[in-house]
């Protein structure tokens, strides 16, 4: 088991990475305020792993119940969130009870937001079961639901008490989702960890083959990068925005096509290539850098082009981004591979040309 | 103008109390991140005071828009909260824009929760326009909406950047609401400020006559009490619970009758008399204390008895309280006038008898 700590003072917590962690009642029990927990999962993950989590809780005498939600980004909304509140209130769940999010990014974001707001805040544990949620969304305390006018528009910064990234749960992950998760892994290399980027160029086949050691290394390295950024800037006043490389373009794809059409990681990959192209136009990346970035995404089996929605539609959707300030679109771009920056002065013509070049049929 | 500061480190903020404050553009401008604000009010308060607030913002060059919600506790719910999100997203309101809550406790709680969760948090200002919100709900950062199964069950701790308690706005307050606000004023005397309780016994007629000096004193003294408690215990891990004297009984009344039938302060008053009766049964208060507590509520024109709902129904509704721990109802009771305590071991028979004695027709 690999472990690291997200050192946020009184909100600090551990991340454990390894196999068989969801069977470890001792790990769950170590952070519980009292011996009661509510496991919240979805109809895909619950049949696979909920019984193991409940058995682990039984083994340490923790009373529990299970709430199963519909699956998918399309359900990351208020009506589904309200199913959680209905279940908690119906069972008279108290402030001292811990919620356990068992699932991917949608479950983690939604259960995290439920924990942030149920009775003004109850403790919660993240048990991410997708590569994407293990390397990114389960760490750092961003929680949210979507609004028809924008992704993650309603949410809170609220840290979990523990993150258990169990590599066992990746065994049943569809290939498409594994690849989507790799987009966020590549991101850490691009924005702040060139050495990791180099490692990924060599080891991508091992990750696609689900080699345990390679996965454990990549997950730990990703979480370390994420934790360092979050410790420096918990509420995204500055450097944390770098984690959104490719996300402004990517959110436009997700919102434009309707949530769930493209996976989040797939949209981020296409968005990252747009951001790379724009960085090249601004003179920061050269052709070879852009080619490397395309190649590593290709090696991960990710789409290299966004959907054809029309540049105007992209720009319109991007204008809703949370990083817009004083009407100005602020984009995360690359100074070079391994160094990101937030830039608000990219000419609209260059943004449009970058989208145009990276979307539609090749 | 009287002023005090809620010293919560980087979340510290000022409370100003006086007349004509909503015309003071300089006060608003002093806490704005950038010159844009969204004023959110309801259909009763907006026609009375919104134009003054907007003119004040104009006078210091702050761009603004106004959102008007339906009025009443019955609208402190998700659909109404979502009207705020729709308006903010429709107008592409950014993270750096400040929300201004202009209204009573419902508007303050709901706009505060919108500010806590819109794009994971934007700044907001409280402009409470009822006595109850000026002395209580606008201070301390408790925000929430109701759920059909319980009051304030979904919310967050989220502090405003400024509170402007303008006594002008009390001029149009209906008598019934003024009296309801006095219930929360009396509360501070009961739980921690015996000297203030003594002052209230003498000055209640001046408050009912809306004497400016008496109101300013009572509001400031209440806010000071509240600020001291909040500074000591921001997230209600301990002493902050004392502010809920009468509230567990009171919430049962509000939920049981349907939100809006009884005003919050009216329900709190009846609940406080139940808590006083229970405190007497536990041997902490004597008959003379209980009589004084009844007298001061009577002098404020408040109902002395809760509605006849049946003791079982009261107990059932109270069991949803946020202070329930390990299945045990924890009640705020009085050791003596001026000193509260949280007590989890009151015999159910005594709780039931206290409700019985203080509800239904006399």
Automatic annotation (TrEMBL), chains A, B:
It catalyses: 7-phospho-2-dehydro-3-deoxy-D-arabino-heptonate = 3-dehydroquinate + phosphate. It is found in: Cytoplasm. Binds 1 divalent metal cation per subunit. Can use either Co(2+) or Zn(2+). One of its GO terms (biological process) is amino acid biosynthetic process. Keywords: Amino-acid biosynthesis, Aromatic amino acid biosynthesis, Cobalt, Cytoplasm, Lyase, Metal-binding, NAD, Nucleotide-binding, Zinc. Pathway: Metabolic intermediate biosynthesis; chorismate biosynthesis; chorismate from D-erythrose 4-phosphate and phosphoenolpyruvate: step 2/7. Its cofactor is NAD(+); Co(2+); Zn(2+). Residues 67-179 form the 3-dehydroquinate synthase N-terminal domain. It is an enzyme of class 4 (lyase). It holds the Pfam family DHQ_synthase. Its EC number is 4.2.3.4. One of its GO terms (cellular component) is cytoplasm. NAD(+) binds at residues 71-76, 105-109, 129-130, 142, 151, 169-172. Zn(2+) binds at residues 184, 247, 264. CDD domains: DHQS. Catalyzes the conversion of 3-deoxy-D-arabino-heptulosonate 7-phosphate (DAHP) to dehydroquinate (DHQ). Belongs to the sugar phosphate cyclases superfamily. Dehydroquinate synthase family. PANTHER family: 3-DEHYDROQUINATE SYNTHASE, 3-DEHYDROQUINATE SYNTHASE, CHLOROPLASTIC. This is 3-dehydroquinate synthase. It comes from Methyloversatilis universalis (strain ATCC BAA-1314 / DSM 25237 / JCM 13912 / CCUG 52030 / FAM5). The gene is aroB.
């Amino acid at each position: 088991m690999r472990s690291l700590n997200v050192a946020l003072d009184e909100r600090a917590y551990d991340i454990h990475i390894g196999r068989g962690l969801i069977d470890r009642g001792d790990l769950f029990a170590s952070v519980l305020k009292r011996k009661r927990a509510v496991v919240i999962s979805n109809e895909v993950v619950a049949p696979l792993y909920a019984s193991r989590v409940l058995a682990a809780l039984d083994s340490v005498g923790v009373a529990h119940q299970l709430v199963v939600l519909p699956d998918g980004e399309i359900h990351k909304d208020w009506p589904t969130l309200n199913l959680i509140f209905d279940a908690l209130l119906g069972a008279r769940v108290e402030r001292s009870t811990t919620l356990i999010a068992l699932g991917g990014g949608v479950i983690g974001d939604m259960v995290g937001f439920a924990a942030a707001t149920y009775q003004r805040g109850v403790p919660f544990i993240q048990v991410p079961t997708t590569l994407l949620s293990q390397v990114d969304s389960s760490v750092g305390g961003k929680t949210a639901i979507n609004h028809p006018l924008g992704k993650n528009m309603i949410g809170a910064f609220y840290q979990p008490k523990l993150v258990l990234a169990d590599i066992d749960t990746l065994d049943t992950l569809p290939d498409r989702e594994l690849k989507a998760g790799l987009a966020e892994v590549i991101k850490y290399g691009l924005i702040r960890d060139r050495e990791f980027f180099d490692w990924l160029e060599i080891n991508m086949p091992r990750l696609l083959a689900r080699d345990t050691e390679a996965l454990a290394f990549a997950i730990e390295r990703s979480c370390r990068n994420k934790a360092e950024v979050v410790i420096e800037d918990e509420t995204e006043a500055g450097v944390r925005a770098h984690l959104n490389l490719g996300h402004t373009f990517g959110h436009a794809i997700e919102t434009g096509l309707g949530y769930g059409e493209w996976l989040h990681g797939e949209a981020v990959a296409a968005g990252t290539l747009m951001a790379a192209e724009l960085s090249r136009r601004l003179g920061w990346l050269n052709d070879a850098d852009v080619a490397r970035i395309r190649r590593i995404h290709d090696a991960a089996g990710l789409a290299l082009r966004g959907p054809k929605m029309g540049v105007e539609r992209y720009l319109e959707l991007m204008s809703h981004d949370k990083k817009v300030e004083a009407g100005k679109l602020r984009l995360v771009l690359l100074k070079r591979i391994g160094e990101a920056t937030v830039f608000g002065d990219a000419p609209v013509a260059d943004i449009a040309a970058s989208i145009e070049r990276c979307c539609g049929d090749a």
